[in-house]
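Friendly challenge for the regulars: who can give me the C-alpha cells for this chain first? No prize, just bragging rights.
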Amino acid sequence: MLVFCATVNADHKPDAEWSWHVQSAGADESRLAVHQRDQRFGIYDLDCDLGDVTEGESGDDNARLQLLSLPSGPQELLIISCNVGAHSQQITIFDLARKSKQPVFSATGSYSASWEVQDGELWIGYDEPCDTGPSVDCPDGYITTFVQYP
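First reply, four minutes later:
Bragging rights claimed.
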C-alpha cells in the first residue's frame, strides 16, 4: 500500500503546498498556524508543548508534526505528538478535510505516546496504568495500548 507523507515546512512559505508556524509554545499550551499555499488554513490550540517541534514520525522525546494521507483512510491528516507536563506525551490528529479545529483523535500516555504507519495503516500507541497496578503481567504498572486509526 502506498502512504503519502507531505513535507510540511516549519516556517510559513507561500510557495509550499502546506506549511506551519508555531505562534506560541509553553509547557501547558501551544498555538499552531497551518497554511495551505499562500492562505492561512487554520489556527490550532493544543494542550501541550510545541517548543521543540520537528517534522516526521514520532520516535523521540521531541514534539513531532506530520501531514499524512493514507490510501485506505482520510486524506490530509495532521498528526501532532507532543509533551504534556513533566512526563506525559500526547498524540492529536486533525482531519484537515473536515476544516474543523477539533481533533478527530487524541490520546495521552502516562509516559509515552507514538504513532507509525504499518502496511498503509496508521497505528497509535500510548501507555496507561494497569487496572491491577504492578503485577506479573504488568511489572512496571503500565501497559501500552495500540489502536488503529480510523
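Residues 4-149 form one domain. Residues 26 and 49 are 5 Å apart (CA to CA). Your move, everyone else.
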